[in-house]
Amino acid sequence: MKAWIAFWNILLKDMRAYYLKPPNISWGLIFPIAWTGMFFIKSGSGIESILSLLPGVISISILFGTTSMLAVTVTFEKKNRSFERLLLAPIPLEVLMLAKTAGAILFGVVNAFVPVILALFLTDLSQVNWMAVFPAVVMIAIASAFLGLFIAVSVSEVFEAQTFSNFFRFPMIFLCGLFFPIKSLPIFLRPLSYVFPLTYGVDILHGAINNQNSMPISLDFLIITTFCAGLFTISLRNIHRKWIT
Amino acid sequence: MGIQQETHPSNPNQVPLIKVQNLTKKFADITAVDKISFDVRHGELFGFLGPNGAGKTTTINMLIGLARPDSGMIRVSNLELTKNPKFAQHLIGVVPDESNLYPELSGFDNLSFCGALYGLSKSEREARARELLETFSLKDAAHRKFAGYSRGMKRKLTIAAGMIHRPQILFLDEPTSGIDVASARQIRQLIADLHHNGTTIFLTTHYIEEAERLCDRIAFIVKGQIVRIDTVKDLLVPVQEKHRMIISIVHSGEALSIDLASLFPDFKFQSLSSEEIRIESVNPIRVGPLIKVLEDHQIEVKEARLQRPSLEDVFVQITGIEADAMRKEKERGTGNA
């Protein structure tokens, strides 16, 4: 119960202090709209291209909204030592870090549905398997947030967090099958695609929205869940090793 | 340097709240803390003094769970926390040397948030936050953002945040460093009141006079080793046997003190500046003959004042470091005036 009180208040504090700030809300709205517009114009194939673009735009909205936000906020709190206050609280480190990532995960999920809401006005989404889309969005948000946590624990300066985030994020746009299939990549790049958790989340979305998944959806879920567990475990171990020296 | 751990057989009720034995911490090949042992008793105000880099922060970090000891044992309220500091973190309140609350939250929200971290219910933490804001004279600023507080107000709120969960022991790291005189006085009074009300306090400070005024016992740490632990009263005994006087003159001090040393061989002279001379003696200093000699040399004496021997002298004796130099070094380091 006591850990739950701490969890809930850390989440609320982060939402108020970081995620619900006007610049982040506007970023969460403008970014997906800009990406949707860009690919829509580029494809030149009219309204019908929206469904094929949607998995990529959803994924990129989550990835960009979540990864750097968490990496930057944790690094910022570490830098100004307010993170010490959290480390001194009598709550398990796992609960603390889940609370810190929960805000970013929620932010990512909300960002994901901005392009979905836009698409609702432009195309027919009746064929979409929402039962797969919802958990896929949540899993992509969790994987992206945990990637942000991994980055935050690996750096000590806010600018390093941003640079390191981009080091992961931009290759992921091209390697994870967001806007063109992995099989169209040069053969030597394809193994890299499977190193990123986003590949599996995007594959679920392609399956749920366009019925164009390249792997069984259950396998995608299993792999992305394993990635999440791995990233979280490594991050916790790094916190123990680097922050509680 | 050996450890001088005193024993206190006089009062069996003085049970240690913190017990540290042979605590050691190394960073690569540097031993930051070297087999230190001490205890802090219930209700005690325990000072932990030493120059920069002596191992104070590393020791505190191990006590509060932000660093892992390489060897040794820490017990807080009889809970062994060397392996798992989370066991005792609910008993500990920490006030770091920098105010590390959340700038975007108000004073009230900061306190309420800190209470939530310790699992206090909403009504409980809000009532406690109001009580602390009142105690620390911050009631009028309760709903202002922390970012807009003055340094003194920030320190006070940071101390209040460390006490939100009514900890058994409060760690205060440089509580008055870098704040204005009035706020520092107010904070010292608050610390004294807390101590009076039975809170156990572990205090580190670069202001030796502050430690002398507030602490029951003091441990001196130098190069990772505790070189002396004693009550303030007992620490002062050796220096109290000395007499000291400061004479302010209108002349160059250095050449003068050499002359005086030959005329008054029982006195030890030290030029503090071109206008100040410090005189030390094991016997009482008679000011009349001194002033007469100075006047005979056409030197105007502005002032002659006896100086009370202080803990600063003990610190200098034990560490070999001028307390004033240490304080300035610290203030430069923190960017404080």
- Biggest interchain interface, per-side counts: A-B, 26 and 27 residues
Spatial extent as radius of gyration of chain A: 18 Å
Give the averaged pLDDT of chain B, no decimals. Answer: 85
Structure annotation, total helices of chain B: 11
Annotate the secondary structure layout.
The complex is a heterodimer of chains A (245) and B (337).
Chain A lengths: L1 H18 L2 H22 L6 H30 L2 H6 L5 H30 L7 H25 L3 H18 L14 H4 L3 H14 L6 H26 L3
Helix pairs in contact in A: 1-5, 2-3, 2-5, 3-5, 3-6, 3-7, 3-9, 5-6, 6-9, 6-10, 9-10
Chain B lengths: L15 E12 L2 E12 L3 E5 L6 H9 L6 E6 L2 E2 L11 E4 L11 H11 L4 H14 L15 H12 L6 E5 L7 H16 L3 E5 L3 H7 L2 E6 L2 E7 H9 L2 E7 L3 H11 L4 E6 L2 E6 L5 H10 L4 E6 L4 H9 L3 H12 L3
Parallel strand pairs in B: 3-8, 3-9, 6-7, 7-8
Antiparallel strand pairs in B: 1-2, 1-4, 4-5, 9-10, 11-13, 11-14, 12-13
Helix pairs in contact in B: 2-3, 2-4, 4-5
Describe the protein's architecture and organization.
The complex is a heterodimer of chains A (245) and B (337). Chain A is mainly α. Chain A has one domain (2-242). Chain A is 79% helix and 0% strand. Chain A has helices spanning 2-19, 22-43, 50-79, 82-87, 93-122, 130-154, 158-175, 190-193, 197-210, 217-242. Chain B is α/β, with parallel strands linked by helices. Chain B has two domains: 16-237, P-loop containing nucleotide triphosphate hydrolases (Rossmann fold); 243-308, Alpha-L RNA-binding motif (Alpha-Beta Plaits). Chain B has eleven helices and 14 strands. In chain B, the strands form three sheets. A six-stranded mixed sheet of chain B has the order 6-7-8-3-9-10, with helices on both faces. In chain B, strands 2-1-4-5 form a four-stranded antiparallel sheet, with helices on one face. A four-stranded antiparallel sheet of chain B has the order 12-13-11-14, with helices on one face. In chain B, helix 2 (107-117) crosses helix 3 (122-135), helix 2 packs parallel to helix 4 (151-162) and helix 4 (151-162) packs parallel to helix 5 (181-196). At the A-B interface, helix 1 and helix 4 of A face helix 2 of B.
